[in-house]
UniProtKB/TrEMBL annotation:
Gene Ontology cellular-component annotations: cytosol
One example GO MF annotation: thymidine phosphorylase activity
Cofactor: K(+)
Protein name in UniProt: Pyrimidine-nucleoside phosphorylase
InterPro entries per UniProt: Glycosyl_Trfase_fam3 (IPR000312), Glycosyl_Trfase_fam3_N_dom (IPR017459), Glycosyl_Trfase_fam3_N_dom_sf (IPR036320), Nuc_phospho_transferase (IPR035902), PYNP-like_C_sf (IPR036566), PYNP_C (IPR013102), Pyrmidine_PPas_bac/euk (IPR018090), Pyrmidine_PPase_CS (IPR017872)
Organism: Natribacillus halophilus
UniProt cross-references to NCBIfam families, sorted A to Z: PRK05820.1 (NF004490), PRK06078.1 (NF004747), Y_phosphoryl (TIGR02644)
Keywords linked to the UniProt accession: Glycosyltransferase, Transferase
Tree of life domain: Bacteria
Amino acid sequence: MRMVDLIAKKRDGQLLENSEIEAFVRNYTAERIPDYQASAFAMAIYFQGMNEQESATLTKAMAASGDQLDLSRIDGTKVDKHSTGGVGDKTTFILSPIVAAAGVPVAKLSGRGLGHTGGTIDKLESFPNFRTELDQDAFIELVNKHKMAIAGQSGNLTPADKKLYALRDVTATVNAMPLIASSIMSKKIAAGSDAIVLDVKVGSGAFMNDLPAAKELAQTMVNIGNELDRRTVAVISDMDQPLGSMVGNALEVKEVIDVLRGGGPDDIRRLSVRLAAHMLVLGGKAENVEAGEALANTLIQDGRALNVFRKFIANQGSDPSLVDHPERIAQAEHTVMVNTSEPGYVTGIEATKIGQAASMLGAGRMTKEDTIDHAVGVELKAKVGDRVEKGDPLVVLHANQDETTEVEALINESYSIGAQKPDERPLIFTEMV
């Protein structure tokens, strides 16, 4: 079938054959289909959608368009976790050692970040000499021996998705639900795990701003995963304010260590334990989520999760004593208090602006060539629902620059103070199994 016929077929709301979707992905990756036809095809999908079978086929074809990780040599059920992204989200570093301490192998591929802070790999590089470039044999050996490894993504992972995503970004088709879901799930399928836990964020600091859209995305991804024989669970969690208290690479690492020691902010600890519980169920270590939460909390309290994290840091080339002395991890030269000018309750925090403030300090990158400053970031002293008096601190800026006036102004813009205490917003809205 000619590409123009495929475009017309989807434009008219007809279902595509598996072979037609596979041919599109194969030929577009090989640059045998021009961008203008791929754009028209993406727009047709935007308006007409895809059913479960079409979405699963598209996902599988994009996963097969490049490198795929073969984890069959790793013993046990490999469970992966993916977050749709947010401000202050460092759950990967908390739940991975918890799950590994229970004997569930965590073999995770992660990337660098563009935006308000670094990605998973950037945050880990707050530990000096931490190695993320691991060949497949070394990666698998680490997971088999120690149950946990995190490596950088291959440059040839899901090339079809990279091409299609770049096209969607400039053709107003980013929000096509089947294309969002297939984009995320193709990378998870290519990463080779047996089961997947999805943390779908909703709120002002998330890709999905409203709950119905977040539910639709979560259900679509769960359906795709199950259709492709990956047991998949989705948790829809709040991102209407930053998660935890720290936003910035080394700051977030230090908060992770605090949680693994049994402390840390309530929201990041509860969400990490819940996600870990689902992974423990999928990995066959807990009968249900409640039992998984109990096990996860035990593994934190008795120090086994922290010990796994310590070994993980050592296994990948850095100094494990930094886990016991986080004050030796990168620290900024200056701290600047941003105080409230009025009394009341914190009624809202625009998470995206907090992220932008961290980026302005140097915690993120706007282009791939930018250099991240691991030490800088934003420390939240007041969260939604907290009472503040005039002059109380809202945040502490951790900076390596003398001039922070613009960052302070952005922080003040991000906070809303009111006379009435706001209703408590759920941390977890719903779960889909």
